[in-house]
Amino acid sequence: MTAVLDHLAIGTSVLADGWDLFGGVLGGRWAYGSDSEGFWWGQLEFAAGPKIELLTPNGEPGGGFLDRFLAARGARPHHLNFAVTDIESTLARIRAAGIEPVGVNLADPDWKEAFLHPRSAHGIVIQVAQQDGPAPLCAPPDDLPEPGPAARLDLIEHHVIDLDGAVRLLRDVLDGQLTGADAATAELAWPGGKRIRLVREDDLPNGGALHHIRFARAHGTFTERDRDRVALLAKRLGTTVALAAHSVE
Q1: What is the CA radius of gyration of the chain?
Q2: Which CATH superfamily is domain 151-243 in?
Q3: Among 38, 133, 137, 182, which is most buried by a count of CB atoms within 10 Å?
Q4: How confident is the model at residue 133 (pLDDT cuts 50, 70, 90)?
Q5: Each residue's pLDDT tens digit, 173-194
Q6: Rounded CA gap, 47 and 211, in Å?
């Protein structure tokens, strides 16, 4: 397997909302983060499932893509990242599938990346990246709360017009294992409890839209206070977050 779902990135101008939601309530632990050209990013990891990455402008030149995104659409999910072991091979598979990647940057020996435009990736930006250097070291943000009880990012549900085409992209190009399918839905999985459910829906912009992400407590259940807090913070982040009724014990 050369591609694995790694994280969902969410753009926001207010990092505290993301830290409170994904750390304080949903148990995310600091993984790593760093300044990049024009923006800052930081990732939280969970008991299982993909990480959550928060992106925010840092006021430096070069972050125009994120400034434009937030100005046009507000806080919301920005991209799905797939970590690949051989980006040249991945790019060849992408092009063989009839998709031309954009933003291809192979100059940095430690971090090589490329993107699929939402029109080519069924309604969401997809980033493929090969990291050969060490993960960037960065202290946790001062406003990151103590993590709440452990939880799994159990599912990403994405709605698409072209279900068969989306399955081909995630299965044949990005190495997802098809674990179930019918006329209206398909589920794909990657190692580490990482799952995407595709649901057929008509009349979606760019051919698709991320519908919601779902968390399940590793032990115990979510309280009503948890649910109220999640609903408030998720709305500020332009992201629908569902909470499983039962733990994964």
Answers
A1: 17
A2: 2,3-Dihydroxybiphenyl 1,2-Dioxygenase, domain 1 (3.10.180.10)
A3: 38
A4: confident
A5: 999 999 999 999 999 999 999 9
A6: 22
